[in-house]
Structure formats: structure tokens, C-alpha cells
Amino acid sequence: MGGVVLQPGSLGDGLHETIGYKSGLAVSIADLCDLLSGTKYPDAILENENGFVRLRSEEIQDLYYQALYKVGYTDKRFNGDGLGLFVYAKYAEHQCELEGVSKLFVEWLPKMMDVAERAGTKKMDPTPLMKEAREKFGVIGLRIAFDRLKAMATASDLDPFAQSQHQSEWLDRLDLAELKKRSEQEPAHGTFFDQRFINFLANNKERIGEIHWRRFEQMSAEFFHRAGYTVEIGAGSNDDGVDIRAWHADADRSGAPTLIIQCKRQKEKIDKVTVKGLAADVSYNGANYGVLITSAELSVGAREVVSVRGYLTCP
């Protein structure tokens, strides 16, 4: 593939647009460069803000693959294998099925394209191909066909040069910078914490310690809400140390909570006073148990309290 000379500002503008309608996030140039640190792309993006930049086509594709992964649009970074050739290694012990399914692809792809063209659509229905792969080559054949089709669909979805790139998935935008600010506004896509922030943090777990402490509480409340609990989040201050109260779905909310949750988004290790304080709050509120959610580690003293009292810890 050849090189592309990019007009000043076009690289950042294109990324802003694609990230916006695919992930629903508005990401500044500074934040985008920060997310892509460790690659060569921040220099190219910054240079292009004021001048022409030349990148190879495959470099632009890789930039989009990495950027869309870092903002949480994909659950893993796409490596550009748009033909699904990885199946030859994944199913190396099933040469007969590999060869057979490959022949089916050669046979069926032109047919599916013809059907789509006659129907006036750009979407192809792979159902006949998958059915024949299953009938002729069993479950392994079906898995091979599915993996290849998924790779092809992913490549089409993420490729900045593909027309399918411009299909909007989010109608509104959420500024990524808001994750570091306090807000009591009800999220557009969630009860306590917006799904777009969840998608972002799922791929950037190391940044959880950077979000605003109130966002950390809201994220924790969203988790228990989705787990089926009735959740009441505290005011964020003067809440007597109880950040979240939660009841089983069938429990009487006028009674004691099923559990109380304390959230600690901090860099310092959790001390034993915090652990003992949570235990005291559980007893005082009549809850069945308490949960401490933190972005930090437990101190030696806190671990001793946990061990002696038989509390459970999760990594």
C-alpha cells in the first residue's frame, strides 16, 4: 500500500470524528496523544496540527486500530488481519476443515456480493456459508467460518478507508475529560455511571486511580445496580462514611441494607483503621456485610486485620 499526504489538521479531525460516532467520546488532542504514548503516532498527530504529514496507508489503519481500542470501542487491539488468516494457526490440527472452509469462502463470497448488489444493500448475509460449513465440516468448520467472517467484519468496521466507517453508533458525545471532574448529572447511558466511561476504563484499568473520587463512587454504584441490587448512593460528603447502601431486589428498602459499600479512590495504601471502620459501620447499620472498593493496596496492618478476622479479599 502507498503513502498518504495528510492536510494540516486532517489526522486529528478524522480521529475526533471516528472516535466520536463509534465510541461516543469526545477526546482532545492532548488526551489522544497521551493514550497513544509509547507509539510513534503522537508525534505525527502533533506535527500534522500545523503542517503536512506523510504516512503509509497501513500506518493510518494501525493508528485507527490502536485509537479505537484505547477509547474502549474494541475489547482488544485489532492487528489488521482482515482475512482471518490466524485460523491457519488456531486450527492447525484440522487441515481438512481449513481447506474445505477456504474453498467455501472462494465459492460463496461472490454469491453473497451478487445477492447484496441485487438487493440494493451493502450488507452480505453469511448464513448460507455458515450453514454449509457446519453441514460439511462439523462444529470445527463452523468455528473456522465464524472466526474468518468476524475478522472480515472487524476490518471493515475499523478501516478508516472503508465506507462502513461512517456509521454512527452514538448520537451524543461525552467529553472524556469529564471523567476527572465531579458531576451529579444523571448519565445518558447508565443509572449512576455512563457506559462509555465503562468501555474506556475496561481498556485502561491503570487510569482508574486518575478519575474523580465521586466518579469512582458512581462507577461502584453502577456495578451493584447492574448486579440486581437496589442502590442508594450517598451525598459524597457528610455521609457518615457510608458511600453506598444496597438491598437485594426483593428486600424491604425501609429496613437495614443488605450491604454497605465504602469507596476509596486513592494512591495511599488502605490502613487498618479504614477496615475496622467499615466493620463498625456494618454493625451499626445492621447490614449483612460490607464491601470496600479501592484503587489502592491494603497496608500490612490492614492485611493483618483482614486475616485475623477472616474477611474475604478479591484481587
From TrEMBL:
- Can you give the residue ranges of the Restriction endonuclease type IV Mrr domain? 210-306
Instruction: Tell me the GO molecular function terms.
Output: DNA binding; restriction endodeoxyribonuclease activity
GO terms for biological process, alphabetical = DNA restriction-modification system
Q: What is this protein called?
A: Restriction endonuclease type IV Mrr domain-containing protein
- Native organism is Pandoraea horticolens
